[in-house]
C-alpha cells in the first residue's frame, strides 16, 4: 500500500449501503462480523445514524460480501433492494420533488449523500434520456459489482419515486459480458448492451417529466436545506492540504517542487511545509496522491497511450511512471486499464 492517503480513504459517506449489505446477507446466514472484517466498522456502528465511513471501508465490506456470498450477480441482488428510503433526508427530498427529472437532479447534486463512486449525469440522446454513470477508478476487481449496484439501485429509486415498476428501454454497460450476463435481462426485464462507451439506464423522455405522486414543494425545499448541511459535514475542511491538492490536480506538469506551488499560491514554501508537517505528510506524498488519482482517471476514462499519461502527470520518463503506479496500486498501468 502507498504511504499517502488515497481518495477512497479521505472521502466520507453515510453507512446506508453497508447497513443494507450486512442486513441482506445476514439473512442469508453470513455473520455481520465476517462482512465487517478488516473494515474498521464495528457492529454497533451500524445502529449509529450519524456515523460516517470512508469509501475504502465500504469497499472492504463489498469485497468481503463477494467472498462470502459467492453469487457473481450480488451487485444486482443488492441494488434491487436499495430503496429510496435508504438515503435518509436525500431520499425524502427526492420523494417530495416535483418531477422525476427534478428528483434525479437533486440526487446528482449530492453524490456524497448517494455514496456513489461514479459521476452521474442525465443526458438527452435523440429520442431517449440516459441516466449515465462513469468515472469509476477504485478497486478494479470490484468494477462489475459496483456498476451493477449503482445501476440497479438507481432503477430501484426511479421505481420508488414513480410508485410503479417501470422498465428502462435498455441498459448500457461499459464492460464485456461477465459469466452471469444472463442474469441482467432476467432481473431487470429490459435489453442489455455490453461494451458501451458508458454505463447508462435509458428511458423515454416523457418519463422524466412525470409528476411525482408525493410531491410537496415546501418539504422538498426544507429537505434540500438539510442535505446541504449534511453534505458540508461530509466534505473535507478545506484546509491547506486541499488547496495544494486542487492546485496540483490542474498543474501537474509544472508542479515538481513545493517552491513552485508556493509561488503559484502566493505563500511561502516554509509555511506550506509547516502545514504539511502538521498533517504528518510531505509534499512528495501529496504529489504522489494526486498523481495516482489522476492516473486512475486517465487510464479508465481515456485511450491515451501510457507515455502521454506519464507526460500529463509530470514524468519525464515513462518508466518512472510505470514503476510508481506499480508501487501505488500493485498493478501495472496496462493491467489496471484492463
From TrEMBL:
- Pfam families per the UniProt record, alphabetical: Arabinose_bd, HTH_18
Keywords annotated in UniProt: DNA-binding, Transcription, Transcription regulation
| Keyword check for DNA-binding | yes
Write out the GO cellular component annotations: cytosol
Q: Which InterPro entries match?
A: AraC-type_N, Homeodomain-like_sf, HTH_AraC
What GO molecular function annotation could you give as one example from this UniProt entry?
A: transcription cis-regulatory region binding
Domain (HTH araC/xylS-type): give its ranges: 242-338
Which protein is depicted?
A: AraC-type DNA-binding protein
Q: What is the lineage of its organism?
A: Bacteria, Pseudomonadati, Pseudomonadota, Gammaproteobacteria, Pseudomonadales
